Amino acid sequence: MKITSKDGAGGRKMQEFLKDVILDIFGPSSVGCIGLDSLDDGASFGEDYIISTDGHTVKPVFFKGGDIGRLAACGTINDVSVMGAKPLLLTSSLIIQSGFDLEDLRTIMRSMKDACDEVDTSLVAGDTKVVDDNIGIYISTTGVGERWKGLDRNMEIVRETREYEESFVKDGGLMPGDKIISSGTIGDHGISIMAQREGINLFGDLRSDVCPVWDVTKRALAEGGVTAMKDPTRGGISAALNEMAEKSHCGIVIEEGLIPTKRPIVAAAEMLGINIHDVANEGKVVIGVRGDLAEDVLEAIRDSKYATDASIIGEAIEGKRVFLKTRIGARRLMNTPDGDPVPRVC
């Protein structure tokens, strides 16, 4: 049996790979309340810290709305942010093809720094390798986040309605009645990159949404009642929602007409034959919130420049599956994709 691209594409096949290979070997290793077997966006250590790591192989390395440097910084910043930790520091590993343009590298490094500066974090260590392989540039980042001072109040509010043992926000904390919020339009990153690769310029200025989401998650937590969060990267919101539902032991129903989208992105997706729900996002958060507090959280995050299009898109229900209620009122399964249909976008 050989490894395929689907084994790392964020969908059902990757989840199977992680369980069958990684967890089978390492087991439920943990140094905190959230460990490897949680398969969350990061792991906790000590009482106050989250750590996460990510690799980035986007093609092309420069795209409308960003580049691999901004993507690498934001990807890890976002993984710790959705767990309720303020991004504290990053380390990075660069694998660069021999002959790569030096000025392009400088641009990429400046993009990384700009993203770090947005959330007042720093790159503190790293490693560089130069290879003869035709890769362009790959970047891996590891990030540490520190427990945010406002997280305790959020947890107190959540624990008024359920048991919640972990001291950080996990992606499996939903219960029936919770509302589901998307912090903004979906599909922007993956579709814009795919359109750029294919030379499609018919639908206006298609741009990636890549950005740090800490301001959004902080505003949500400050309002209180956040029960679960996840950034819908590889596999899109389809994969994120199914993972949240499975870990929470409940179902979810999403209303198609409430999912925020941009008309040019939808048009490009249709031309490319891609389900917009399955495509990676790099600047959005799916947030589970106590139903009675969802409107307050929505209003709070809309004050962020990165969540002006935020919307309540559905709710958690009894059951085990994720359903999409279509615009004509039909209900169909919203399954986890095998993998992200657009390879090498993150």
Structure description:
The protein has 346 residues and is an alpha+beta fold. It has a single domain (5-333), classed as Phosphoribosyl-aminoimidazole Synthetase, Chain A, domain 2, CATH 3.90.650.10. It has nine helices and 14 strands. The strands form three sheets. The protein has a seven-stranded mixed β-sheet with strand order 9-11-8-12-10-13-14. α3 (102-118) links the parallel β5 and β6 (122-131). α5 crosses α8 (263-272).
Layout of helices and strands:
Elements (H helix, E strand, L loop, with lengths): L11 H15 L16 E3 L3 E8 L5 E2 L2 E2 H14 L3 E13 L4 H17 L3 E10 L5 E11 L3 H8 L20 E4 L5 H11 L15 H10 L2 E5 L5 H13 L2 E5 L7 H10 L13 E4 L4 H8 L9 E7 L4 E4 L5 E3 L13
Parallel strand pairs: 5-6, 10-13
Antiparallel strand pairs: 1-2, 2-7, 3-4, 5-7, 8-11, 8-12, 9-11, 10-12, 13-14
Please tell me the CATH architecture by its name: Alpha-Beta Complex
Indicate the CATH topology. Phosphoribosyl-aminoimidazole Synthetase, Chain A, domain 2
Average of the residue pLDDT scores? 94
Major sheet summary line: 7 strands, mixed
Low-confidence residue ranges: none
Helical content stands at 25-40%
| CATH H-level superfamily | PurM-like C-terminal domain
What is the CATH C level class, in words? Alpha Beta
Q: CA-to-CA gap between the ends?
A: 25 Å
**Overall 3D form:** globular
Sketch the topology as an H/E string, one letter per element.
HEEEEHEHEEHEHHEHEHEHEEE
